[in-house]
Automatic annotation (TrEMBL):
<dbReference type="InterPro" id="IPR029052">
    <property type="entry name" value="Metallo-depent_PP-like"/>
</dbReference>
<dbReference type="InterPro" id="IPR019079">
    <property type="entry name" value="Capsule_synth_CapA"/>
</dbReference>
<feature type="domain" description="Capsule synthesis protein CapA">
    <location>
        <begin position="7"/>
        <end position="273"/>
    </location>
</feature>
<protein>
    <recommendedName>
        <fullName>Capsule synthesis protein CapA domain-containing protein</fullName>
    </recommendedName>
</protein>
<comment type="similarity">
    <text>Belongs to the CapA family.</text>
</comment>
<dbReference type="Pfam" id="PF09587">
    <property type="entry name" value="PGA_cap"/>
</dbReference>
<dbReference type="InterPro" id="IPR052169">
    <property type="entry name" value="CW_Biosynth-Accessory"/>
</dbReference>
């Protein structure tokens, strides 16, 4: 007998700092960025009323109707002004704007990425404190080393099933010296440490294990072999059920490996970045994973990808007939095929891509 189907939405990088932060009524003091935003608002008056719902655009209905929503929070959340030395890009948003995440029912925010330490360790501490006070689960950073390596534990509403999510980042390398940030590499030593970590920090018999990783370079269609090897290791040796990958700024392919799901690159969900035409970093989507309740277990059944576009600092659902929708769907089908996985472009229904896991 089939069990209840839960819907978990995975998204990539959510960058609410820099220009986006300046659009909110409360923002950190960045005069140059504020001037740029005023010019945008002059040409587009709608941006004058930018608020907590604005980054999500018309995707809010999908987020509000699902059981759990997962993102990578690609910014520090702090008023601390001391930047990490010799770093080219430093992103932060005002702590008041954490309301944007709670408004969208974001249940989990990954903090292991290359921007949460942009405003030094004091900025990271405020980021952790702010996310915690908002009631949002997080992993990949913490108050200390143990906190950074500890999993976030969530349960969908109306369910007793525990879902554990661990997070790590392979860059920047000089952040390896910060105990409160979970830095990883691809060595055998790190793999053995991760296996021990997951075995020792998971509660008894979690229903689902997720590994969320900020990995690889920007703008590369296929994951490097070391990334694929780590993803396979996390499934083979650590019992991971879903790999939530991000960092590339654009979509990458999906792999079904031994009945488990690997999303190598979710793309950027909302940001203020310049367009790189070849990689269409303005196109990504909601990666909705359907999970079936089977007694005390949860089983990943399928992935449904719903294309979105970053449009004037907001995410927008793409209609099936739009050329951008067709482009990103075709790209995911092509890239997944290169990983040995069949993805179906289901353009007759909602303009989605479907990957059956079991």
């Amino acid at each position: 007998m089939a069990g209840r189907i839960l819907k978990f939405n995975f998204m990539g990088d959510v960058m609410l700092g820099r220009l986006i932060d300046q659009l909110f009524p409360d923002h950190v003091d960045e005069p140059e960025e504020a001037a740029i935003v005023r010019s945008f608002q002059h040409s587009n008056p709608k941006l004058a009323s930018y608020g907590p719902k604005s980054p999500w655009g018309d995707t809010l209905t999908v987020l509000e109707s699902s059981d759990l929503n997962f993102i990578n929070l690609e910014t520090a959340v702090t008023t601390h002004a001391q930047k990490w030395p010799d770093k080219v890009f430093n992103y932060r948003m005002h702590p008041a704007n954490i309301q944007a995440l709670t408004t969208a029912r974001i249940h989990y925010a990954g903090l292991a990425n290359n921007h949460t330490l942009d405003f030094s360790q004091e900025g990271l501490r405020e980021t952790v404190q702010t996310v915690r006070r908002a009631g949002i689960a997080f992993a990949g950073a913490g108050d200390d080393e143990a906190g950074a390596r500890r999993p976030a534990i969530l349960s969908p509403a109306g369910s007793d099933h525990q879902i554990c999510i661990w997070a790590g980042s392979d860059h920047p390398r000089d952040w390896k010296t910060v105990p409160a940030f979970h830095s990883i590499d691809y060595s055998q030593k790190t793999k053995e440490r991760l296996r021990e970590l997951i075995q020792s920090t998971a509660p008894t018999n979690p229903a689902l294990k997720i590994w969320s990783c900020h990995w690889g370079p920007n703008y590369a269609w296929q994951p490097a072999q070391q990334i694929q090897d780590l993803a396979h290791f996390m499934i083979d040796e650590c019992g991971i059920d879903i790999v939530h990958g991000h960092s590339s700024h654009h979509v990458q392919g999906v792999e079904v490996y031994r009945g488990k799901l690997i999303i190598y690159g979710c793309g950027d969900f909302v940001d203020d970045y310049a367009l790189v035409e070849e990689y269409r970093n303005d196109l990504s989507g909601i990666w909705q994973v359907h999970v079936e309740e089977l007694g005390e277990e949860l089983r990943v059944k399928r992935l449904e990808f719903y294309p979105t576009k970053i449009d004037r600092f907001m995410a927008r659902r793409l209609d099936p007939g739009e050329a951008d929708s067709a482009w990103v769907r075709e790209k995911i089908v092509q890239l997944s095929a290169g990983l040995g996985t069949r993805a179906i472009d289901d353009d007759d229904v909602e303009g989605r891509v479907v990957v059956d896991v079991v």
